[in-house]
Amino acid sequence: FFNFTFYILHQLFFETKAMTLTRTFLTIIVNLYVFLRSSAESEEIELISSVRRKKNGDRVIVRAVVVGDYQNGDGDEIRDLGGFFLQEERAEKEGDGISYGTTSEGIFVRQGLSDGEDFIDVLLGNIVEVNGTLAVPEDSDGDDVSILAENVIILDGNVCEGTGSAIDSCLKKTVNFALVDSIAKARLDQLEGMLVEFTENMMISSLYELYKNRIDLYAGDTLQYLYTQQNIPSKEGYKKHLDNLDSHSIKYCGGTDFGGNEKIVLDGFAKNFTEETSNRVGDVIRGVRGNLQFIDGHFCIRSYRDGMNSFDRSSNLYPRENQPPTVYGNLRIASVNVLNFFTTIDNGTATTATGLSPWGADNSEEFVRQLSKLVNALAAIDADIFGLMEVENDFSDSQNRSTPVEVLVTALNGKYDDAGTYKCVYPGTQHLDTGRTAVVVVYKPGSVFPAVNTTPAFLNDDVAASLGFDVSEPIFDGPSTNKWSLAVTFSHRRSGNNLTVFVNHFKSKLCSRYTDGKNIDQEDGAGCYNDIRLRGAEVVSSWIKSNPTGIRNSNNVVMGDFNAYAKEDPIQYFINEGGLANLESETAYSYSYGGQIGTLDYVLVSKNVMAFNPNAHIWHVNSLEPYVFDYNLEYSRNSSFFNVDSPIRFSDHDPALLGLEMHKSDEENDGRDDLESGSKKRTRLPKTYFLFLCMLSSVVYI
Predict the structure, then answer these.
(1) How many CA atoms lie within 13 A of 563 on its CB side?
(2) Model confidence at 1, in pLDDT bands (50, 70, 90)?
(3) pTM score
(4) For the chain, what is the total number of helices (H) and then of strands (E)?
(5) Are residues 498 and 612 in contact, defined by beta-carbon separation less than 8 angstroms?
(6) Can you tell me the distance from the alpha carbon of 227 to that of 562, in angstroms, rounded to the nearest whole number?
(7) Exposed / middle / buried, residue 459 (Cβ in 10 Å: 0-12, 13-18, 19+)
């Protein structure tokens, strides 16, 4: 303003020496005034609640209590986030906080490493003064705000002495320890950065992010089912379901956001993390406490000290099943997704017999671990017929033990005294489609054998076209389609009955670059590719009626990983149009996703099979277990997590089991209507005919 004024005067009058001196003097005075004023403003200590309302890059200075020490390199390797949490003392807080009236009274302070000359090591309970700049993410709605510290001064030493519960009690008196009695009703954005205690019970709902030392908690009495497990797909209903799930969920995090593959450092988890000591989905935590932080789009609570939170394993409503549930009958059948069993090692350069990169073990050590787990599980199930999904796609009629399924069968037979306990079915071709994996059938020849004059049959688009289906948009051939299905008819040795198994693996819900049209996610809960799964169900239902193995048979078991929850179109079509029965209960589940549970794996049976007292169960050996127990060693996985003698977490899906009491039937259709393909149907004489002959012979005798 002054410079502009003197410029105008200069234009109107000739500038005199006095005018020049005056202008210089006034300019110095004005600039000095501005400098002193801005310095005074920058030194003004503000409440954290006020600081959080400022803009990114604004200079700030706060004075508050250390309520969470997560500095790097300060001797505490369990809590390394590169900073610490501050919270206002009670005497200086804004509002009452507990009623969540305005803005949070806590904030995270980010520091450099401890090897810097200006590093200050703070402790819980210290009152410190921090000078720095405010960091506000571009997409922040007032969350995840932090201070980038330039200067940290410890003012009053420790206002809280001691450790453990003593420091808890002190902090509760020193700062506002916010109590939240309902996570669904709380405004967590008004508590971000503060000490928080949730009074309601929560349970572990997902362990997927354990590699980040981070898990999901759900505030409820039971786990939530995926929406379409119990509801017909609906956009409106699905949105309400997700909103409800989100409002009842929170992350529980360790003191570091990495390293979970090497060491689990979650407060309340066993320091020596093994199958025997591990926590699982469903474990209950009561009164969880800690520092509330917004990270990666979610609110997360962190324990500021060891031992302040604990999980109750005994209250888990979903106990671990070390052994499969008992299925009754003289014929046991199992559908098992084996999680990409490949003998071709994924070393970065190898390709499978179909010319694609493998998806299984990355090295020989992982392969041995995978094979051990898988064999333990299959031997424990001890089924007479296995339908397996995700086995490397390579078959041979030479049966020389060289193909992936033969390697698996050889290892499985090693669990039995008889090396011929199990055999695999050759599907009649080296590859079932051109993909990486295929479905396979393994059986006990001592219990069943391929029915006389039958041939294993596979279902692809050529077969679908012969059944009258339009395959201009592929259903089974090409990328992002269903895997080829496989049908085998067996004769049961004890009863003489025939039974045909149809093994399937439908397209996953995962969207890809091939997703278009009806297969796009409709946001109704069914995910991507629902249409291609439905078309698969339609074709399979028609294929069953065509007696593809060469024998008329009405005893059918349709099993596999259908990648569809119980109320979705494919399963509903099998039931309502295909005449099949789903024996699984409404509370069944075989898979866990997004902190929810549901069934993707089924053993569906035809009407005639209901006469054999079918009983179905799912073995919960995988879906709720920590993934760190599987065969993988990537990302520096701690090898001590692995138990070579256990089946736990041999896959990500739970096996579906079926028991049948096969007996000789007096029904006209006993499941084996023909002695051989193309022969005339056997004629059954009625019982009254034989009774008449007996009476006639008696009369003749008399």
Answers:
(1) 23
(2) low
(3) 0.87
(4) 12, 30
(5) no
(6) 17
(7) buried
